[in-house]
Backbone:
């Protein structure tokens, strides 16, 4: 099935929005890709990097007549921007986002979204790097995009959105917003938090003994170089799930600590063997 | 300065020992590289992979007349094997190891090492993969090797060992055994532990929702696929440092949790900014 749209608007042309614009144009999914942002310099850069066909500082101009609007902004301001663009959307428009938390923002959006424009998306790609200077042509290729419909979601729009992400190069998985937030808390938000905290506890070693830091530490903490703005938002938007995952993590840490203190070598070996087995199930 | 030896013995031809043998032969550092192990099948594989020039199941044959003996075995059995080979070593022989913990094994070894043969080494390379099937030609290239001399170490032997690791392709850093264990606990042992525990807490997601697990989780937990035998040994050999690092980590986790509960958004942003800054100092 082909997908040929006339106009897509991308609100926010950073790493995620910019890389997506590039893919949309490369795969000829839309004739026009309009980039909206608050900073004209960054928008001009997006235009010169052929990430969008048009740029504007005006929200109405950006979203008017668009077939799809992609809100690629930090989670805390997605509902506010949805509210701003709502009056200018055409009847069949689909609005989606790229946010890492869904429950809270969708609850907010539902208050205004009488026309059921919005369906949440979470493309599980990204990088600790941000901004237009780090866009990648193949960021979305072979990735997985979680779509989070709920009871009010229009079936035709949902099918269209699935096709949209497939054309971008992604597999799609459907989860309801609350399930999404619960699972993603454990497999993405908790790992980010642990990496940030591990980095903080090693402040002295990073400053004084950089030369002896090896690949294990570097990989384990790669995501600690992620934007503090984006991740503060995410941690607060998914606060309850994260608190519950922190609790479980602390229990595991205490369990291990006790076994170590009591010299329970065989029990620790068994724990590590199980972890190794589980990790081996992933690529 | 050239380094041309007649005979090097490698006890244990797994990933570390095997990859080193390959490098020693490729760089023509020694005419003979003898591999010793407890499993004849694995030894034959090492021979066929041109990792060593000779193989033997007999320790005496392996180490007799050797200029360098490399003990590439799990940390818990290094002192025991040092004791076994001690009677057969020639006067100027240098014995070193590849272990991740130093204080405890060196204390043990000192009890027997009247001739001061032993100087500890810790090449900061490796992989979550183990065994002869995973050896890599360039495992040691551009890596850092920590050497852990103490007051009893002979200066000539130390200079020789520095040269040895340089010829293998590594930078060398000197630390005393106790400093080594303290720093490495934080930058290697704690990260391994956190990765193992993170994997364990996500058991259900790994089994049921593998398809939505992204790059962040994979990188953060890569080292959780490491050998449970090797890492149980390491955690116990460096128990006190690890317990103290676990304590510090729990304090950071508690600090974050409290800030999240109290909605201290700016304070959390500041913490994450600091972590991002620190992580940015590493490659």
Residues:
């Amino acid at each position: 099935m082909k997908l040929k749209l006339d106009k897509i608007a991308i609100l926010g042309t950073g790493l995620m929005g910019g890389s997506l614009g590039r893919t949309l144009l490369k795969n000829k999914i839309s004739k026009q890709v309009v980039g909206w942002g608050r900073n004209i310099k960054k928008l001009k850069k997006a235009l010169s990097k052929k990430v969008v066909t048009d740029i504007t500082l005006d929200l109405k101009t950006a979203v008017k007549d668009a077939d799809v609007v992609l809100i690629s902004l930090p989670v805390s301001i997605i509902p506010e921007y949805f509210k701003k663009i709502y009056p200018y959307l055409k009847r069949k428009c689909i609005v989606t986002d790229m946010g890492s938390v869904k429950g809270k923002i969708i609850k907010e959006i539902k208050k205004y979204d009488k026309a059921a424009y919005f369906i949440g998306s979470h493309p599980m790609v990204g990088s600790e790097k941000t901004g237009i200077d780090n866009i990648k042509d193949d960021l979305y290729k072979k990735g997985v995009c979680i779509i989070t419909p709920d009871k009010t979601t229009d079936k035709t729009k949902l099918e269209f959105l699935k096709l949209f992400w497939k054309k971008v190069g992604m597999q799609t998985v459907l989860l309801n917003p609350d399930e999404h937030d619960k699972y993603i808390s454990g497999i993405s938000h908790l790992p980010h938090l642990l990496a940030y905290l591990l980095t903080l506890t090693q402040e002295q070693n990073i400053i004084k003994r950089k030369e002896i830091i090896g690949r294990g530490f570097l990989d384990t903490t790669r995501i600690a170089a992620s934007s503090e703005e984006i991740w503060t938002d995410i941690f607060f938007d998914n606060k309850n799930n994260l608190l519950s995952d922190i609790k479980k993590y602390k229990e595991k840490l205490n369990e291990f600590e006790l076994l170590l203190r009591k010299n329970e070598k065989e029990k620790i070996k068994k724990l590590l063997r199980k972890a190794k087995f589980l990790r081996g199930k992933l690529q």
